[in-house]
């Protein structure tokens, strides 16, 4: 999402952190997730890409071909400016698609992931 869309704020709220500092480039955070059904805890890695397209090359560190099937991609928009939401979603979806295309994942594997 764009700068100021609330990416870091959203993760901070999920973590229960009131004061958080916005990073530059790509931030790394993690969430401890408790599965009540199995009484198990796991760590969910979170990478937040800066809202400047200049940093899109950093996606290679967060999204790799071997782990893409276990990856959730979240696009965040600034709802204080709803008239920009569609353009922002299209722009960032295009950035993600461009990166995934560079991973050269076999078509049958991509189709399987898309159907999940």
Automatic annotation (TrEMBL):
Highest taxon listed in the record's lineage: Eukaryota
Q: Main localisation, per the record?
A: cytoplasm
UniProt KW keywords: ATP-binding, Cytoplasm, Cytoskeleton, Dynein, Microtubule, Motor protein, Nucleotide-binding, Transport
Subcellular localization, as worded in the UniProt entry: Cytoplasm, Cytoskeleton
* Entry-linked Gene3D superfamilies: P-loop containing nucleotide triphosphate hydrolases (3.40.50.300)
Q: What is the protein's known function?
A: Acts as one of several non-catalytic accessory components of the cytoplasmic dynein 1 complex that are thought to be involved in linking dynein to cargos and to adapter proteins that regulate dynein function. Cytoplasmic dynein 1 acts as a motor for the intracellular retrograde motility of vesicles and organelles along microtubules. May play a role in binding dynein to membranous organelles or chromosomes.
Tell me how this protein assembles.
Answer: Homodimer. The cytoplasmic dynein 1 complex consists of two catalytic heavy chains (HCs) and a number of non-catalytic subunits presented by intermediate chains (ICs).
- Assigned GO CC terms: centrosome; cytoplasmic dynein complex; microtubule
Q: Which GO terms describe its biological process?
A: microtubule cytoskeleton organization; microtubule-based movement
- Pfam families (UniProt xref): DLIC
GO molecular function per UniProt:
ATP binding; dynein heavy chain binding
Q: Which family does it belong to?
A: Belongs to the dynein light intermediate chain family.
The name this protein carries in UniProt is: Dynein light intermediate chain
């Amino acid at each position: 999402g764009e700068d100021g869309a609330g990416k870091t704020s959203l993760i901070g709220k999920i973590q229960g952190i009131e004061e958080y500092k916005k990073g530059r480039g790509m931030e790394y955070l993690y969430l401890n997730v408790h599965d009540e059904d199995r009484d198990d805890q796991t760590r969910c890695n979170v990478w937040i890409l800066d809202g400047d397209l200049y940093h899109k090359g950093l996606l290679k560190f967060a999204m790799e071909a071997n782990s893409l099937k276990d990856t959730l991609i979240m696009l965040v928009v600034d709802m204080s400016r709803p008239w920009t939401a569609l353009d922002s979603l299209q722009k960032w979806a295009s950035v993600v698609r461009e990166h995934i295309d560079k991973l050269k994942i076999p078509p049958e594997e991509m189709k399987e992931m898309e159907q999940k």
